[in-house]
Specification:
The protein is α+β, with helices and mostly antiparallel strands. About 20% of the residues lie in helices and about 35% in strands. It contains nine helices and 21 strands. It has a six-stranded mixed β-sheet with strand order 7-8-9-3-10-11, sandwiched between helices. A five-stranded antiparallel β-sheet has the order 2-1-4-5-6, with helices on one face. Helix 4 runs parallel beside helix 5 (about 175-190).
Length: about 375
């Protein structure tokens, strides 16, 4: 593998070229990303996601590697460059919190700062992560979600240029995951730190990511803006039939629209959802599962479903089973619906055709609603 010569570096971003063979498995990744935002690496167990993060952090040394972060070369095997982990300005959050049990929360945070603690940064992070009331406690007195928030704060106290998060919610039950996700929403907006987020939970990825990289068998099979990846019907098998679903952006216009509902404005019309706590004018990212969309050629009347959005068919992807994935444009947003092949043929769905996407209000789970990381 060549070093930097012959390749354009990503100014202010991240450039990764690495190859690591171990037994029957080979990690072979080439990726260039601009600075900022949240990039999620999604794929099944054994895809190489953790191996990739460990190489970026300097916790492993691939046989062939070139890693550059904001103009600094961290690894270049061709030229004998390897920056030690503690000098990389890369924070790492593991699946388990790994807090020091004999230290208080405040002491754990300050340990992350090393020799240069910042009271201002500590105050900012404790506010973002909601851990200010926990500073005098010890890890044994924390819930799983609280401990993980402290671990994130500790990783950020070293003022990293890149934060690596390796399945940070995997060890938590659903209640704790739902508890911590709003803090991750806020962290992505307020910290200003570029984040690489590893997960095999698409709900987390769809809620948090600006960019998605799909991984399988040690390789990145596709990457791009989250809206493009999630709305591509050809990628439904890779994402998973049950997890497939696109994301649209909506602004809260009425926190209480009556009957326990909130009203959101999308680029194609109004979306009514179970009452949200977000204040009016908040911009939200709403994930709608492909299986929760019903298509109609004509605008339906007399349905219990409250959300009916006009749409145009962009593409149709037939699978090996009875299902068909239909890519839709609704206003400026994109959706993907999953219907049977029989229904698609009976409706004569084809690219360019008009239809209506019908969405039940109660089908959108609270965990599928988040605040965009970048506005």
């Amino acid at each position: 593998m060549a070093g930097r010569q012959g390749r354009a570096a990503v100014t202010g971003g991240v450039e990764i070229r690495l190859r690591q063979a171990q037994g029957d498995f080979t990690l072979d990744v080439a990726l260039s990303l601009p600075s900022g935002g949240v990039t999620a690496f999604f794929g099944p167990s054994g895809a190489g996601k953790t191996s990739l993060l460990r190489a970026i952090a300097g916790l492993s040394q691939p046989q062939d590697a070139y890693i550059e972060l904001t103009g600094r070369v961290l690894s270049d095997t061709e030229n004998g460059v390897f920056v030690k982990p503690h000098d990389r300005r890369v924070g790492y959050v593991f699946q388990d919190a790994r807090l020091f049990p004999h230290l208080s929360v405040a002491q754990n945070l300050r340990y992350g700062a090393g020799k240069h603690p910042s009271a201002a940064l500590e105050e900012k992070l404790t506010g973002i992560l909601g851990i200010a009331p926990l500073l005098e406690r010890h890890p044994r007195d924390l819930s799983g979600g609280e401990a993980q928030r402290v671990a994130i704060g500790r990783a950020l106290m070293c003022q990293p240029e890149l934060l690596l998060m390796d399945e940070p919610l995997a060890a938590l039950d659903q209640h704790r995951r739902d508890e911590i996700l709003p803090y991750l929403d806020q962290l992505a907006q307020a910290s200003g730190v570029q984040i690489f987020y590893v997960s095999h939970a698409m709900a987390e990825v769809a809620r948090l990511a600006d960019t998605i990289a799909l991984m399988r068998d040690g390789k990145i099979t596709r990457y791009g803006p989250a809206e493009d990846i999630l709305s591509d019907p050809a990628l439904v098998p890779e994402i998973g039939v049950r997890e497939a679903g696109a994301v649209l952006r909506a602004r809260v216009t009425a926190r209480d629209a009556g009957d326990g509902l909130s009203a959101l404005a999308t680029s194609a019309g109004t979306l009514l959802l179970p009452r949200l706590e977000a204040p009016e004018d908040t911009l939200l990212r709403v994930r709608i599962l492909a299986s929760d969309i019903i298509l109609s050629k004509d605008r339906p009347d007399g349905l219990s479903a409250l959300n009916i959005l006009p749409a145009t068919v962009l593409a149709i992807q037939e699978g090996v089973g009875p299902g068909v994935a239909v890519a839709l444009r609704s206003g400026e947003d994109r959706l993907v619906a999953r219907v049977t092949r029989r229904s698609a043929r009976a409706m004569k769905l084809a690219p360019g055709g008009k239809c209506f996407a019908v969405i039940k209000s109660v089908s959108v789970a609270p965990g599928n609603i988040g605040v965009p990381a970048q506005r």
